[in-house]
């Protein structure tokens, strides 16, 4: 029986909602209580002090270190925090913090991840770039951190309620292996657990079918050599834990029809298969974007009341457009950037993600059905990431 079968997840987090509207709520107080005076996860002696990749999973409101040998492995029922620390010059460190929200994570987990991301940024003296990452639409920067990303069904044990059910006669797991259309790294490969049915097959990718007593590899007729090689690595990792027979079949072989039958397609006559990829690629280029469709907004409480106003539209961003006393949101159509001035008020700094996601919801209501999948990233004046600096005209 697969670890996630026979389990029901608590109330699922709606990815379209703002996960910082929970600040000040009962959840907020529970998180602070569990955090106590200090967060052990940030105080291991290396976080923020040396380059590296650090990953934590949210488990029962706590930040739990994720094993280094499982870097790149995620569960769709969980939320994670990923810190990438890198060198900038000889004596300076840069930081990117990603809070990754699985498509079936709970509201508690998502809210805790967002809150703890802010806490980690404060631990790093507020100089980090923060990224909200959605499972269905990862940013180039996130994908580039891993040579392989594996997304499996299920989640942390404390996040599930067991349901008594008759155990299935056999385990059936189907993994889809495909190249992610990201400019971040040319060999980024996604391994994604999909519904074990013939309707999940696609000519362009490789699929690994685990039937418990045997593993089958189905190579789509248009898959790439890289996808074949990565699928072989996946199978190798799977067979280390259990010794079972493995059979590799090309879609062009007549015997490959056996896999379609195993997935319930005995009566299906088609010889070509297409299925939407579970992760969307960039909505378009995530670098410069199209200035003609860009919008720059200012978030300010200078009048005593927070206001959010359009500053310019359809023009390139210039350094002179930004004021260090406020927070600005820059929508380039493909993603939303937030720039925080060093002299912005505490209220403006606290509101940025809430306002950013409220703006995304507004776009959603304006017939942009995929607006909620937009990557959102916040940079701080003087510590802007290379991706943001590419947007600023000379």
Defining traits:
394 residues, Severin, seven-stranded mixed beta sheet, 7 helices
How does this structure look, described?
Keywords: Membrane. InterPro entries: ADF-H/Gelsolin-like_dom_sf, Gelsolin-like_dom, Gelsolin-like_dom_sf, Villin/Gelsolin. It comes from Aspergillus avenaceus. This protein is of the alpha/beta class and 394 residues long. It has 3 domains: 154 residues, 3-Layer(aba) Sandwich (Severin), CATH 3.40.20; 90 residues, Severin (3-Layer(aba) Sandwich), CATH 3.40.20.10; 103 residues, Severin (3-Layer(aba) Sandwich). 20% of the residues lie in helices and 28% in strands. The strands form 4 sheets. It has a 10-stranded mixed beta sheet with strand order 3-2-5-6-7-20-19-18-15-16. Strands 4-8-11-10-12-13-14 form a 7-stranded mixed beta sheet, covered by helices on one side. Strand 13, helix 4 and strand 14 form a beta-alpha-beta unit. It is globular, with a radius of gyration of 23 Å. The N terminus is likely disordered.
* Number of separate domains: 3
Overall, the morphology is: globular
Q: State mean pLDDT (0 to 100 scale).
A: 82
Q: What is the assembly state of the chains in this entry?
A: single chain
- CATH architecture of the largest domain, by name, is 3-Layer(aba) Sandwich
Weakly predicted, low-confidence segments: 1-10, 158-168, 283-288
In sequence order, what are the helices and strands, one letter per element? Answer: EHEEEEEHEHEEEEEEHEHEEEEEHEHE
Query: What fold name stands as the CATH topology of the largest domain?
Result: Severin
What proportion of the residues form beta strands (DSSP E)? 25-35%
Provide the CATH top-level class of the largest domain: Alpha Beta
**CATH homologous superfamily heading of the largest domain:** Severin
User: Quick one: biggest sheet?
Assistant: 10 strands, mixed
Side by side, the strands of the main sheet go 3-2-5-6-7-20-19-18-15-16
DSSP strand tally: 21
Distance between the termini: 59 Å
Main location: membrane
GO molecular function, one term: actin filament binding
InterPro entries: ADF-H/Gelsolin-like_dom_sf (IPR029006), Gelsolin-like_dom (IPR007123), Gelsolin-like_dom_sf (IPR036180), Villin/Gelsolin (IPR007122)
Region (Disordered): 271-301
């Amino acid at each position: 029986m697969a670890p996630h079968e026979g389990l029901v997840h608590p109330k699922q987090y709606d990815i379209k909602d703002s996960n910082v509207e929970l600040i000040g709520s009962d959840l907020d107080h529970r998180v602070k209580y569990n955090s106590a005076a200090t967060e052990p996860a940030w105080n291991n002696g290396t976080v923020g002090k040396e380059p590296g990749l650090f990953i934590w999973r949210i488990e029962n409101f706590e930040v739990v270190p994720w094993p280094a040998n499982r870097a790149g492995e995620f569960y769709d029922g969980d939320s994670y925090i990923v810190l990438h620390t890198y060198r900038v010059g000889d004596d300076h460190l840069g930081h990117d913090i990603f809070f990754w929200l699985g498509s079936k994570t709970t509201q508690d987990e998502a809210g805790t991840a967002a809150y703890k991301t802010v806490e980690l940024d404060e631990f790093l003296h507020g100089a980090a770039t923060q990224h909200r990452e959605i499972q269905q639409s990862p940013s180039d920067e996130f994908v580039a951190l891993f040579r392989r990303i594996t997304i499996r069904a299920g989640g942390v044990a404390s996040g599930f309620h067991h349901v008594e059910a008759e155990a299935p006669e056999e385990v059936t797991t189907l993994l889809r292996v495909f190249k992610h259309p990201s400019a971040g790294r040319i060999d980024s490969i996604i391994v994604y657990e999909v519904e074990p049915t013939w309707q999940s097959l696609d000519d362009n990718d490789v699929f690994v079918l685990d039937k418990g007593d045997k593993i089958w590899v189905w190579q789509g007729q248009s898959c790439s050599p890289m996808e074949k090689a990565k699928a072989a690595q996946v199978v190798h990792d799977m067979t280390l834990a259990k010794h079972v027979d493995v059979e590799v079949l090309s879609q062009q072989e007549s015997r490959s029809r056996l896999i379609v039958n195993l997935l319930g397609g005995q009566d299906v006559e088609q010889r070509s298969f297409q299925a939407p990829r579970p992760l969307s690629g960039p909505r378009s280029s995530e670098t410069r974007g199209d200035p003609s469709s860009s919008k720059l907004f200012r978030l300010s409480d200078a009048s005593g009341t927070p206001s959010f106003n359009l500053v310019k539209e359809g023009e390139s961003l210039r350094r002179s457009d930004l004021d260090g006393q406020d927070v600005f949101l820059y929508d380039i159509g493909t993603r939303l950037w937030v720039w925080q001035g060093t002299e912005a008020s505490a209220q403006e700094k606290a509101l940025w993600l809430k306002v950013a996601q409220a703006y995304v919801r507004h776009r959603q209501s304006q017939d942009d059905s995929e607006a909620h999948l937009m990557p959102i990233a916040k940079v701080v004046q003087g510590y802007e990431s290379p991706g943001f600096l590419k947007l600023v005209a000379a």
